[in-house]
Amino acid sequence: MTDAILLQRDRGLLILQLNRPDKKNALTRAMYSRLAEALEQADADPTINAVLIQGSSECFTAGNDIGDFLEQPPADLDSPPFYFMKSLLNCRKPVVAGVAGVAVGIGTTLLLHCDLVYVSRDARLRMPFVNLGLCPEFGSSLILPRLLGHAKAAELLLLGEEFSGAQAAEWGIATEALHSGEAALAKAREIAERFEVLAPGAVQVTKQLMKNVDREQLRQVIEEEGALFTQRLRSPEAIAALSGFINRR
Ligand code: COA
Known about the structure:
Radius of gyration: 17 Å
CATH topology: 2-enoyl-CoA Hydratase, Chain A, domain 1
Protein name: Enoyl-CoA hydratase-related protein
CATH superfamily: 2-enoyl-CoA Hydratase, Chain A, domain 1
Order of helices and strands: EEHEHHEEHEEHHEHEHHHH
Structural class: alpha/beta
Number of strands: 9
Helix content: 40-55%
Organism: Pseudomonas imrae
Shape: globular
Oligomer: single chain
Bound molecules: coenzyme A
């Protein structure tokens, strides 16, 4: 079996690549745990200056593995998806994302917690939580209305409307939209490498200051969303919608 998370070290840069192409890089419990461990390692290792998260130039991720959601739904806030997101939120090193193709569910949510996000213009982002009988996760119900206003955020969170990489950049969800998937990944790599020559202490203090502003409120919202999300995963609405995807063919 090939490794669904490829780890690559290039000087002070740690690259985490999602690599499950036959399933559109859908994230399994094992993949979350691997990502979380790598982020914790990056946080603790003084020789790592920055982390780059990417998929391929065709696909970022189709979100949580739906089979996993049905078979072993996360029961509490220590389960693998929560462990991964906690590691991302706690990572003091800058995290850069390179995004092309689909970024669904947690694939979009996680971008809200990266520092610099490069997308292809035609990337397809979507948070179909309501469509799956679920609810927003990891602070998106706080962050998106603040960024976009309630009415626009409602289109994304209540209706689960898809939006493009170009729109993500226009709305401040992404840093920049590039003309192709290859260009988005190349730009993300180029920017992540910039941290090689920036003073790491100053970078970390600056990130900490930027993130401190909302930390307590964000923590409370994430806890509330998490409790509702784990409940909803066991609801008849969610079970019917998730089973519908599995049985669609
Ligand atoms: N969990 C598990 N498997 C998934 C998956 C997911 N989230 N997303 C895609 N896959 C699998 C498909 O079942 C298919 O596997 P198969 O070939 O063994 O049947 C394979 O990946 C390719 O997916 P497919 O749907 O054929 O690709 P597509 O290009 O037509 O569509 C998506 C891509 C992402 C739009 C579509 O797969 C999709 O909507 N996935 C679900 C996204 C989602 O709701 N995520 C959860 C959010 S909480």
